[in-house]
């Protein structure tokens, strides 16, 4: 429960008024239930015969002790009922008591409804806040966090685990704001009726509670395993949907089917065990509750039969009714304990994200930079994803404003890593990156990334319209601006030829478009942003010759009057670059213009010869 109290401190303050309303209504509902139950005593006495003249009016004052006041009020109540019987008859008095019972039950159920009415905004509001915090944290975490996590598992945490936490919050809110109020008030009345019986009850209850708690602890471990396996299952589904073309092309349906079946079977076995333990909660609590009531009935009946207790038979029935009313909230607590254990397991998984350190963030005194004036400098840069494996090693590079600099080399030489460091998708371990002489770690990330436009090898598009994909991330863009950007990117013609023009949905990840069309949409997006610094990460490597020609024309338009860093495998696309840097095993081993590098007869010459061949 400790983690849930922490959760409440984080998320409940905005809902204080609802919490107060819920507590007040639960309190009133409990008090009204006592009055409705109390009506049973005179009804029983009327049904089994009340001796006339047994009670007389007893005066009392506020200076009397609480015990004397309670006895006086109880005596006067029965005296009043006697007078009603003598005046109106037993049958009419019974009818009046029945009407009073109905009225008190109406008040009890009405306030119980209001308690739930106030509880609903708390439950759904806290759930919304957790989702919001989780989504914002997912956006804030650096790219390196996701290299260690599966997308399917993260999705499972944001859906299934959050729902489990929501169910646990509902249960724990009842435990904190409803059931304790009922149990405390009911126990107080039970002590007033018979302290001997109540002490006996308090000895029995912890024994049953201990057994239920023991089962609940084992459920938490099983639930954590179940949610983890569910994440693996979702990851498998996500990978299958993403790689369906390759699966079919390689006739690998049987292989992925068997892998999915294996994970699915593990999930089935785990949830079978977990659900059986969860279902065990009700029978165990029902059995223990009934057993305790029988024991209490035997013990209380023995006291009454032997005349060793001041409690009457009618009051004992009232006592049993109140005690039975404690059993229900106690059973709710036992069932809620199981739900909370499942929720705590999910909370541990969600907190992996919520409590993850955002290693890349703005300094408190970070400066705002509105424009790029002079140069970009990579100064003694070294970077590693994992310890003892340097992807970049002591890189030095100066890029002047307006220059086009190309990075070439074998796969794994560190080209894409270099361009990922510039917008701070990752932070360097050694050295510094400077823009106009200012370390990028001292610049607000929003301003830093606003200076840059990205076009990647895989065009990253969203399941939305052409219009919204081109305008993505650009505020106050007009339709004319978007059309102009699409025309420059050679995208306008195929957009207007589509069913709804710029309002046509392009499908999941742009699946309705060809590779060249997707790339031209991403170029149009970069053009609309109009950044002074452009990063092209193998933007044409996955295209056919005709598409490459159209995309290259769009890129040429995009590169005009900009500082451009190009990561290229096709060397024919970067012959006109102002500077070509050849990378090998995390180092720049050659640099110069195309003709100069050919003359060196080194790495670059060999790359060109292989592509020419």
Description:
- This protein is an alpha/beta fold and 613 residues long.
- It has two domains: 2-354, Up-down Bundle (ABC transporter transmembrane region fold); 375-612, 3-Layer(aba) Sandwich (Rossmann fold), CATH 3.40.50.
- It has helices spanning 2-11, 16-38, 40-47, 66-88, 90-140, 143-146, 151-177, 179-193, 195-242, 244-249, 253-305, 313-354, 415-421, 445-450, 466-470, 479-488, 492-496, 515-529, 545-559, 594-600, 603-612, and strands at 375-386, 389-400, 404-409, 430-435, 438-439, 452-456, 533-537, 563-567, 579-584, 587-592.
- The strands form two sheets. Strands 6-7-8-3-9-10 form a six-stranded mixed sheet, with helices on both faces. It has a four-stranded antiparallel sheet with strand order 2-1-4-5, with helices on one face.
- 31% of the residues are buried.
Q: Beta-sheet strand percentage?
A: 5-15%
The CATH topology assignment of the largest domain is ABC transporter transmembrane region fold
Indicate the CATH class of the largest domain: Mainly Alpha
Q: Could you give the count of β-strands?
A: 10
CATH homologous superfamily annotation of the largest domain: ABC transporter type 1, transmembrane domain
Low-confidence stretches: none
Question: Shape, please?
Answer: elongated
Spatial order of strands in the largest sheet: 6-7-8-3-9-10
Describe the sheet with the most strands: 6 strands, mixed
Q: Output mean pLDDT.
A: 79
List the domain count as a whole number: 2
Q: How far apart, in Å, are the first and last alpha carbons?
A: 69 Å
How helical, in percent, are the residues? 55-70%
Helices, by number, come to 21
- The secondary structure category is alpha/beta
The radius of gyration over CA amounts to: 37 Å
Gross CATH architecture of the largest domain? Up-down Bundle
């Amino acid at each position: 429960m400790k983690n849930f109290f922490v959760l409440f401190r984080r998320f409940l303050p905005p809902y204080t008024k609802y919490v107060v309303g819920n507590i007040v209504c639960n309190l009133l509902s409990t008090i009204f239930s006592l009055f409705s139950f109390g009506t049973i005593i005179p009804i029983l006495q009327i049904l089994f015969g009340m001796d006339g003249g047994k009670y007389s009016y007893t005066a009392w004052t506020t200076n009397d002790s609480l015990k004397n006041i309670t006895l006086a009020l109880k005596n006067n109540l029965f005296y009043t009922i006697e007078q009603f019987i003598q005046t109106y008859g037993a049958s009419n008095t019974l009818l009046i008591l029945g009407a009073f019972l109905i009225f008190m039950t109406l008040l009890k159920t009405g306030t119980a409804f209001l308690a739930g009415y106030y509880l609903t905004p708390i439950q759904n509001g806290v759930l919304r806040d957790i989702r919001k915090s989780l989504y914002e944290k997912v956006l804030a975490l650096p790219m390196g966090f996701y290299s260690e996590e599966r997308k399917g598992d993260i999705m499972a945490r944001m859906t299934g685990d959050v729902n489990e936490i929501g169910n646990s919050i509902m249960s724990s809110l009842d435990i904190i704001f409803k059931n304790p109020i009922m149990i405390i008030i009911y126990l107080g009345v039970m002590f007033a009726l018979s302290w001997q019986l109540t002490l006996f009850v308090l000895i029995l209850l912890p024994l049953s509670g201990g057994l239920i708690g023991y089962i609940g602890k084992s459920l938490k471990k099983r639930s954590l395993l179940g949610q983890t396996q569910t994440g693996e299952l979702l990851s498998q589904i996500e990978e299958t949907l993403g790689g369906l073309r390759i699966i079919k092309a390689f006739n690998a349906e049987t292989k992925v089917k068997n892998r999915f079946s294996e994970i699915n079977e593990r999930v089935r076995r785990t949830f079978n065990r977990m659900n059986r333990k969860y279902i065990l909660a009700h029978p165990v609590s029902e059995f223990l509750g009934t057993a305790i009531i029988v024991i209490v009935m035997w013990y209380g009946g023995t006291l009454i039969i032997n005349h060793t207790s001041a409690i009457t038979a009618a009051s004992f029935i009232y006592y049993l009714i109140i005690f039975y009313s404690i059993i229900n909230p106690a059973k709710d607590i036992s069932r809620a304990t199981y739900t909370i254990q499942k929720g705590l397991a999910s909370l541990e998984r969600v907190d992996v994200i919520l409590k993850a350190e955002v290693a890349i963030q703005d300094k408190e005194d970070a400066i705002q930079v509105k424009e790029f004036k002079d140069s970009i400098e990579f100064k003694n840069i070294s970077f590693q994803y994992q310890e003892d494996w340097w992807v970049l090693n002591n890189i030095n590079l100066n890029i002047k404003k307006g220059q086009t600099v190309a990075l070439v080399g074998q796969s794994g030489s560190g080209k894409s890593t270099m361009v990922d460091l510039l917008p701070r998708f990752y932070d360097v371990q050694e050295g510094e990156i400077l823009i106009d002489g200012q370390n990028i770690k001292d610049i607000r990330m929003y301003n830093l990334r606003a200076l840059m436009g990205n076009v990647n090898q895989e065009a990253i598009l969203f399941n939305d319209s052409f219009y919204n994909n081109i305008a993505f991330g650009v505020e106050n863009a007009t339709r004319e601006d978007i059309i102009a950007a699409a025309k420059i990117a050679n995208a306008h013609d195929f957009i207007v030829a589509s069913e709804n023009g710029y309002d046509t949905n392009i499908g999941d990840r742009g699946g309705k478009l060809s590779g060249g069309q997707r790339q031209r949409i991403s170029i149009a997006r970069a053009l609309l942003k109009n950044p002074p610094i452009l990063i092209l990460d193998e933007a044409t490597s996955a295209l056919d010759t005709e598409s490459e020609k159209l995309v290259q024309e769009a890129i040429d338009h995009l590169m005009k009057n900009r500082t451009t860093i190009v990561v290229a495998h096709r060397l024919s696309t970067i012959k006109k670059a102002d500077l070509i840097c050849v990378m090998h095993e995390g180092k720049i081993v050659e640099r110069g213009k195309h003709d100069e590098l050919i003359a060196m007869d080194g790495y670059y010459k060999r790359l060109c010869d292989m592509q020419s061949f």
